[in-house]
Every structure is written in structure tokens, then in C-alpha cells.
Amino acid sequence: MSSVTVTASATPAALAQRAAPARAGMTPQDLALIDKLKARDAEVRQHEQAHLAAAGGLALSGASYTYQRGPNGVNYAVGGEVRIDTSAGSTPQETINRARAMAAAALAPAEPSGADRAVAAQAAQLEQQARAELAAEQSGQTHDGADPRRQVLQRAYDTTPPAPPTLDTFA
């Protein structure tokens, strides 16, 4: 059995139909393994789809899967990932919004993995840092508050964060 990382194209159901005649000569152990692989495939695809749906515009690509070839010659997804943009925003408020979206995407599946929880923790830390930066800006103190050049530039370019985006649900 071998594993490779590729982007999904054909579904295991379609591939299984082509391999159906091969099932006839299989051992009970092979058939049990195929059933396990089918169940794992469905679970992995559902898990990654939950990430994709919650990530929205932060998703850098579709889901990528790691496959295992079953005794029937069909590749079944046994692992997967969705790459999301984890960069900070251009303002503290934008960073807070992005961090919340990152955490939501990481925790979207019914059973988040350890890696999912780690990403959510990183997002929470990013949000906390952005909140501290926002509070410092709102109180008139910045990390470089003593630098008069920074204050002049800040006044000249008015770095007030834009209003958060809104969604019109009128149909």
C-alpha cells in the first residue's frame, strides 16, 4: 500500500464501480479493509469540505488529499488539508476579523484534529495581539509612540481602519 498527496479529481464511488468485478475474488479481510477505507474516505472529505466552507476567501486552494490504494486498486482519501491565508490584515481591526475567520475555519469540522486546534490557538493569539495593538492605537499610544516621525506620518496618512464589510441579505 502506498500514499501520495494529490488534489482530488475522481470520486472513490466512480472508481469503485470500475473496480467492482475485482471484488468477487477478494478475501473477507480485503473486503473489510475496503469498507474501512471507504468510511475513512467519506470522513476525510467531509472534514476538509467543512474547512473549505468556513474558510471563505481565506482558502488559498481547494482540499488536497493523501490517498491509500485499497486491495481493489482504488485510491481512498485517508488524510487531507485545506491551505488558508494566515497573514495579518493591514489594520488591527482587519487582523481581528481575519483571525476570527481562521479560527472558525479551523474548528469547522465536527471533530477538529490536533492540527486544527493548533491553528485555532494561533488565530486566537493573533487576534489577542491585534486587540492589544488596537487598544494602544485608540488610547493614543503606539509601540513607536515616542518617534515623532511616526506620529507625523500617521497623521498625514490617517490610518483609521475602514468600517468592517457588511452583507446585504435582502433577496
Could you list some keywords that capture this structure?
171 residues; mainly alpha; three-stranded antiparallel beta sheet; 5 helices; 50% helix; 11% strand; rod-shaped; disordered N terminus; disordered C terminus; Catalase
Shape: rod-shaped
Which range does the strand content fall in?
5-15%
Helix/strand-derived category reads mainly alpha
Radius of gyration: 23 Å
User: What ranges have pLDDT less than 50 throughout 5 or more consecutive residues?
Assistant: 1-9, 167-171
Measured as a percent range, the helix fraction is 40-55%
Give the neighbour order of strands across the main sheet. Answer: 1-2-3
Count of the domains = 2
State the separation between the terminal residues, measured CA to CA: 51 Å
InterPro entries: SprA-related (IPR021973)
Protein name: Catalase
Organism: Massilia atriviolacea
Pfam families: SprA-related
